[in-house]
Amino acid sequence: MGSMIHLAVGRLEIDWGKNDGFRDHSPLFQPSDLTEVPYYYVDEANPRKESGAEYESNLVTHYKEGMSKPLGQVVERINLLGHTLPYARQEFEALSRFNSFDLDQFNFDQLTKALATVNVNEVSADYGEGEDFGKLFRRHLFDRLGLASIVGDPHYVQFHAAQAMENLSAYTILHLLARNPSAAGLPVTWQFADIEYGGWARRDQFVKALDPVNRFLIVTEGSSDAGIIRHALKLLKPHLGDFFDFVDMNESYPFTGTGNLFNFTRGLISIAVQNNVIILYENDAEGVASYNRTSRLNLPWNMRVLKLLDLPEFASYSTVGPSGEHRADINGRGAAIACYLDAGPSPVVRWNNFNKELGVYQGELIGKGDVMRRFYKLDEPRPDYELSRISAVLDMVIAECTAMREAALMKDLATEFPPEADVEPRPPQRRADQA
Length: 435
Known about the structure:
It is a single chain. This protein is of the alpha/beta class and 435 residues long. The longest helix has 29 residues, at 388-416. It has helices spanning 71-80, 85-98, 108-117, 133-144, 154-165, 170-177, 181-184, 193-197, 223-236, 258-270, 285-295, 368-376, 388-416, and strands at residues 4-9, 12-18, 34-42, 48-51, 54-57, 59-70, 187-191, 216-220, 244-246, 276-281, 283-284, 303-307, 317-321, 324-328, 334-335, 349-355, 360-365. It folds into two domains: 4-209, no CATH class; 212-408, no CATH class. It is built from 13 helices and 17 strands. α2 (85-98) packs across α5 (154-165), α2 (85-98) packs across α6 (170-177) and α10 (258-270) packs parallel to α11 (285-295). The protein has a five-stranded antiparallel β-sheet. Strands 9-8-10-12 form a four-stranded parallel β-sheet, sandwiched between helices. β4 (48-51) and β5 (54-57) form a beta hairpin.
């Protein structure tokens, strides 16, 4: 019979494998996600029971070690792997096209509606042993998802769409289930214990750090910028923190200053660096000038250059300079990263050096050291500390990283399934992880 491994949302199995044939879903989890999770087995003493017009297995539940993470957090990790909702649509349509399946009969929006409305808590965990998603779709999900009521030709869809569904990835299904109210609060579990106990795989194949190929190197103007972003991830996005690496700051930060960062970027381009790299400048005069210069470089697909985003609240900010105190727009002139923290009730930017390239003065937040020290003392979000601005910075960085990986996956998908390819229908093939 062999040992089985399952990826599931609640009791709804999304992917499975047997013995040493399984897909690596470790990027969905962090080592801290190891916990006791439910495993479902057929009750050998009473294996079958009648349920309406059908029979299904009686199941018993045992708790063993496995990986578990909330569905919403898993979907955020899937996005950073490049498997976004737009990619999920393209995957569905590419597989349908490759299998000569008529999208007028059954399309991505209909699958989205079906998976968004099925009651996941009422779905049986007994799908049989080792069925691919095509068989699962045809034999079980078509009726359970109520697809007969939303498709044009139920018979055609039930028996022919399964061929296209066979290789639909688990990550697409997880994306669509995240829109389902009955699934949104459920954990995604990876039930690997039987594979491990059976000797088919080692524990470190499941509980491990994220592979470097899936991580992003964040390079900033100075150590304070990198340190603030790292701490913000710990506070606001701990389930994504392992996706991001920073230049080692233990001794001294080697790329201090916008000029050095610009030269470093040129060096990375010249050696065709393989890492996914985000170059991040501040939103002050020096940062914007270097951002503009860097943007004109011929950046490879795996490098993106950003600057801290303009914010409406920076358009009228207390400033002080040789001409006295005034309210002024510090976007692009004095919005260094400390301004995105909680700088207190009356923050002030002081104008100092004149930037000839932009024709504006460079500004600096007064008391920025105290502002940063207060931020580092936070060990969790608090209602009396304003985190919306630094949260917006994280969202911007994460969105750019997601777009970088999505573009790479889209390119690979187009290569594997050319949009205009004239392909012949093919018989269903089992996935490698289901062999």
